[in-house]
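Sample 1 of the test manifest.
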Amino acid sequence: MDDSVAQALHTYVKSLRRYAMAITRDPNDADDVVQECLKRALAYIHDGRKIRDLRAYLFTILHNVHSDELSRKKKNGVQLPIDNDGIRLVCPAPQHAYMDCNDLLDAVDKLPEDQRQVVLLIGLEGMSYRAAAEVLGVPIGTVMSRLSRGRNALRNMLAAERVGRRRERVPEASDTDWRQEGGKINVG
Amino acid sequence: MAPWRSRTGRWEDLVQAYVDDMLPPRQRLEVEEYLAIHPDEARRVADFRNQNRGFHELYDHYLLEPLPPRAQFLEQRILGKMARQRTFGTVTRIAATAVIAVLVMGGSWYGAQYYFAASGPQIDFLAFTGNSAKAPGPTAQGRREDVRSANIASREQDVQSASIASKEASGNRSKAAESGAPDLSDFGLRLTSSREVSQSTGAEAAQLVYESEGGQQVMLYYSPTKDNGTQKITLTEQGPISILVWNRGGRSFSLIGDVNRDTMLAIGAAVNTKWVKSPAPRQGTGKKAPPPDAPRNSEDRTQRNDSGTETSPSAETFQPAVSQEKVPAEQ
């Protein structure tokens, strides 16, 4: 096996894990889903069958596994992790004025599952509309309509969040006072 | 959403594709022109792009993390399987190619053996036509036409279609003239083709086609028969077509041509004189028949007629003494 194939597979598995993190929002769930996905791919190849498009195949399995997991959770009830805000701990500081990453996380989380998948496959993974349609097993027109609705919904949610935060914003002077007092929060 | 509709597609689809850099240059320019004069739409596009940037800021750091050990292990297993699959696939392709090559060569050899074995007796039978077993056979269509024409000819009916069939089969020309076929040049006829055809009885027959400079055509069908006795000579005239049928010396002859009665009889006599000199072909012996000019066999030289009188077949005795029919030509 040449290095290019090995490198490609490694890149696919890493982006698969990134996408799994995005749709599950739980590192443990994401790793479980990725492992199950790789196990199924291995079994498929072990049977002597060939995979035409490895990346699309891996993402398709990931969606199947994730759908199974969602169905199972819906049946058994959702188990919240002890640290439900785990992903927020690794979220870097916002890099631009228009968007807070936690707001974006919350907004994505509120999206319907089908729109979230399309928005992330295209916006995060950079898939073409056709590839996304193959992965999700839907027509390309459905992908485009889900993408449009998902992005517009995200935009509206983020705009509403910004407006709300402006209203609750504490005065600039308080921040200055807090820093001047050595980081102690003056509750009183 | 803007009510505007692009010249080249639905606006909303164009916007989404513009955000994802999936537009060809012409449509991209079209969208940019529109956004330049519609700031609200431009802000919307900018927000969508910021969403994409936000996703990468949120999740791209996972690409820098090492994979969990279990995932690494599975990744290596998959790589190993894919390598084996690729090697096995290459070996399989080579093996399959080799097997196909062997099958094709073996099949060709077997087919050739079968064909030549099956056509062994026919080589003798067809020897006089100048066809050899190695000569290209008639096509299926041509063969069907020949069978049909032979059947028709044997029924003394549509000679014209037999003539057409002969023309269709003219691609199978050979050096028949060099093989001892009857020379009809005295009648202005030149041998143009010779081939093997099937009769309605399933028996094989030889077909010789002669043509004159003026376009007249005469076909001679020849086949061995089990009946060694002399049968009646039948001459049938059907419009401009004459059909002459006779048996002699274990052979059955049919002459069909657009010649008059006297010419047909003369041709028949010439053919009879030529071929009764050679021994009757024996089917299934696998032995090559002697050439028509070989020394005569005394047994073949004489024949017994219905009254038991031995007659020496010659041009003089070749007369349609028993049957002579005249059929009006079909309209």
